[in-house]
Amino acid sequence: MDNAATNNNNNGFTRTLSLNVEAASNRKSTPLRKMAAVASIAAGIQFGWALQLSLLTPYVQLLGVPHQWAANIWLCGPISGMIIQPLVGYYSDRSHSRFGRRRPFIFFGAIAVAIAVFLIGYAADLGHSMGDDLTKKTRPRAVVIFVFGFWILDVANNMLQGPCRAFIGDLAAGDHRRMRIGNGLFSFFMAVGNVLGYAAGSYDKLYTKFPFTKTLACNEFCANLKTCFFFSIFLLALVSTCALLYVEDIPITSESQSESEPQVFNFI
Predict the structure, then answer these.
(1) String of b and e for 52-82 (b: at least 16 CB within 10 Å)?
(2) What is the pLDDT of residues 38-77, one digit of tens each?
(3) Which residues of the chain fall below pLDDT 70?
(4) Helix H or strand E segment including 134
(5) Which CATH code is given to the segment(s) 35-247?
(6) Can you tell me the distance from the alpha carbon of 211 to that of 267, in angstroms, rounded to the nearest whole number?
(7) Based on CB atoms within 10 Å of each CB, which residue in 20, 81, 152, 180 is the most buried?
(8) Cα–Cα distance between 138 and 181 in angstroms, integer?
(9) How high is the pLDDT of residue 29?
(10) For a pLDDT cut of 90, what percent of the chain falls above it?
């Protein structure tokens, strides 16, 4: 092996090690309150999941969705989780947005949740305005709107959950103790969201707070579902806004990404 090539390889290896050491030393300890702010988004996500499980099956029956369709609708959760989360994770890791790697996905995921919840809650009203006959068992237009909104909701929830977990990992900065604490906070807020979601779904007079939700096409149960989803949107918007404004998501540049990639040395 040529001595010049050997020296170049050694210098390159030393430079890579020094870059890694320098990057590790430049990592700042993230306060736990910021990790908690990001983890709190899990409460908004899980609030929506709990409402889905507790309220949407009776709502499906109200719209007259055929039984064979109802089972296929619930396939959206596992399918979107299997496809969307890995894709979002892959592209968020490589995002060069000036707003950061995780925040754009969280922002647009929250907006998609709001749109989906509106479509689901107002499916009966929208279907009726498009010509659904309320005297018939099945309201086909309302069913199409509901299914479309339901799939958007599951996709958006998975679009939110992946970047939130990755964001916590970014804030942990390689500290295994902080990573465990961050995961614990995420699980805690998931439990909080579950409790709030099931509690809201069990209160059948909640719609009285917003009387306008009850319409000709939407009975008391349907109006209660609308009201619960309003609270879901409010909670998710609150925790997402706080996290996105309070926690810094440092964008990556092409130079920093190329420096972090392993270098291949020619030993021949």
Answers:
(1) bebbbeebbebbebeeeeeeebeebbeebbe
(2) 999 999 999 988 888 888 877 887 888 777 777 777 777 7
(3) 1-29, 252-268
(4) none
(5) 1.20.1250.20
(6) 76
(7) 152
(8) 49
(9) 60
(10) 25
pLDDT tens digit sequence for 213-233: 888 888 888 888 899 988 999
DSSP-derived secondary structure for 203-261: -TTGGGGSGGG--SSS-HHHHHHHHHHHHHHHHHHHHHHHHHHHS--PPP-HHHHHHHS
Whole-number Cα distances in Å, 81 to 85, 157, 264: 6, 9, 35
Q: Can you tell me the distance from the alpha carbon of 8 to that of 168, in angstroms, rounded to the nearest whole number?
A: 38
Cα 264 to Cα 9: distance, rounded to the nearest angstrom: 9
Helices (H), 66-175: 67-73, 76-93, 103-121, 123-129, 140-172
Secondary structure in 3-state letters for 26-71 = HCCCCCHHHHHHHHCHHHHHHHHHHHHHHHHHHHHHHHCCCHHHHH
